[in-house]
Amino acid sequence: MLIQEYRESWIEDFNAIKSVINNTLINLNISIEHIGSTAVPQLDAKPIIDIDIVYGKDVPFEILKKKLEKIGYYHNGNQGIINREVFKRKNRWSTHPILDTMTHHLYACPVDSEELRRHITFRNYLIANETARAEYQQLKYQIAAATNQDKKQYAALKEVEARAFINDILAKANQL
């Protein structure tokens, strides 16, 4: 199944990845946020840890990028989203005991990024609101069923089908 029952181990996986990245980016003004569905307790999800590295205005992006390259990431552009840079692993057959065994998406966002604000606001709203969390979970299962559990089709349909739900949640959260 594409969507899996919530696992507490997703928090442990995030913390393990975070530790490696923190050690790599030591002495830089950064924080690391667990975002996406695996960051929301009791929310079923695809077992992929989504991570935002948040960097301060005093951190040149090129320095951050070079340090991440040293541990096997490459910069894959912003993929059409301003102020959210995507990093991927260089070699699928690499052997880092943590970074290459835990499926994750890594992004870097400046502290004033609108996309970062959206990630954090949506995550926090779902954590605080059981009804919204259940509705989002149901929507994800419906999309997975409609796409016959196909990852690429799921991602494409979710982009369309979940957009209205996410925008509605963000609007509600901004009213609080």
Can you describe what's shown?
It is a single chain. With 176 residues, the chain is of the alpha+beta class. It has two domains: 9-112, Beta Polymerase, domain 2, CATH 3.30.460.10; 122-175. The protein has helices at 9-24, 61-70, 114-128, 130-146, 151-175; strands at residues 30-35, 49-55, 73-75, 85-89, 104-110.
Layout of secondary structure:
Layout: H1 9-24, E1 30-35, E2 49-55, H2 61-70, E3 73-75, E4 85-89, E5 104-110, H3 114-128, H4 130-146, H5 151-175
Parallel strand pairs: 2-5
Antiparallel strand pairs: 1-2, 3-4, 4-5
Question: Briefly, what is this?
Answer:
This protein folds into two domains: 9-112, Beta Polymerase, domain 2, CATH 3.30.460.10; 122-175. 47% of the residues lie in helices and 16% in strands.
Summary keywords:
alpha+beta, 16% strand, 2 domains, 5 strands, globular, 176 residues, Beta Polymerase, domain 2, five-stranded mixed sheet, 47% helix
CATH superfamily of the largest domain: Beta Polymerase, domain 2
Q: Low-confidence segments, ≥5 residues, pLDDT <50?
A: none
> Count of helical segments?
5
- What is the overall silhouette? globular
Kindly name the structural category: alpha+beta
N-end to C-end Cα span? 36 Å
- Overall mean pLDDT stands at 95
CATH topology of the largest domain: Beta Polymerase, domain 2
